[in-house]
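In this section we walk through a basic example: taking a raw amino acid sequence and producing a predicted 3D structure, encoded as discrete structure tokens. The instruction is simple. Fold the sequence below.
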Amino acid sequence: MIPEIAILGHPNEGKSSVLSTLAEDDSVRISSIPGETTQCRTFPVSIDGREVLRLTDTPGFQHPTEILNELSSYQGTGEQKLSKIRAYTAQHDHLRHDHELLGPVERGAGIIYVADGARPVQKVDRAEMEILRLTGRPRMAILNCKEDQDHYLEDWKDEFRIHFNASRLFNAHRANYRERIELLEALKAIDQDWQPLLTQIIAAFQKDWHARTSNCARIIAQMLSSILNLSIAKTIDPHEDSSAYEQRLFEQYSSRIRKDEHQAHQQIRALFKHNIFDYQLPDYTVLKEDLLAEKTWRLLGLTQTQLVLIGALGGAALGAGIDIGALGHSLGLFTLAGTVTGALGSIVGRKKVKKMPALMRLRLSGSTLRIGPAQNISLMFVLINRALLYYQYTINWAHGRRTSGSHDLVPGGESLRSFTSEWPREYLKTSHSFFKKIALYHDGDRAIGQDFETLIFKVLMEISDDTHTR
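The resulting token sequence is shown next.
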């Protein structure tokens, strides 16, 4: 049997937002206009193609006082009362929304009652809660309480203790994965018979999160392999000035790596089921900066200490030769000079380049001008940090949220964070090894990058766990 949970409450209290966040489904229609939901709609929650839970959105109560008065006059069990009140509401057109919302309850759904904690408890709320109590169905109350709007919190809790088996605070616009799991855990308390099934559902959710994060690590590793191994060539006329060819080659190369990064980020987004609503990143995040911008590299590239460590490992090109004014680009992306290796070379290269080491070589062989593959391991770390930050934003965007608002998606200050700036030597060594092997890292040959992929998965889980405990 697949359990069903019906989301009930007063109009415009956040029922659809709660459902959207719980189901990780951004196709749920959310409106600030009361009464927009007029019919029940069930959203299946599936894992690995198997439906494990059904969440049903319902219209808001319209005439709870009339229904309660009628319901109180009936004798019998909660199920018998439900059957009678459904028959009564079916006979009156003005009660059609109330008739509709009680349908899932009559067929056996558990109840999540949603209330807005920003306002005081009213008589109509008590009527709604008493109706649900009289049904005898397993039920939980959720206070959809926004930050700094908890003035009536204790009043709501007192009412919840009277009418429900359990209650929780739950901000549908801010809830992350851990809070969704905790809500499901709390649902166990509403009925002992539900506990074994909910335990299986929670285990499936946790396994699914683990699998998604593992796939995310694979996406990042594949993106890096594609971008760092990218090489583009163009035939030139030896009698013409090569600068125009260089410019076009640079534009083609930079366009390609931006596209590859964007595609990887969209794959991460899809993994966490943000399929429809286009959530917007805040303006202050470094992700809004161009991938090849100086600020991006300054914030997300290797630190000087890490350059020394990487250089000491040997073999990672760090850009000894540069041309700061190349192609009018302030980063000095191209160099025709050789690279410096070793710890001493990395220090010299860092000091020589005030803004950024060279990114890749621009080679001329006969009539062929070639750019790539990347010569500078710093590009790899810039891409890693941007992917990790994008992951952090994605897992923190609740599916019931529809506007960016003024609140950070990540903890304060981390919008400019370099995750790799504090990586230990072991992590740098694994990354360096992957960078050296990148030319051999082909599709279908994941074993070459397995250690690095495992490292990225570990870091992603650390970000996830850190987020969930905040």
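Looking at the output, two observations stand out. Strands lie at 4-9, 41-47, 50-57, 110-115, 139-143, 166-169, 232-235, 334-335, 360-365, 368-374. The two ends are 35 Å apart (CA to CA). In the next section we compare this with other chains.
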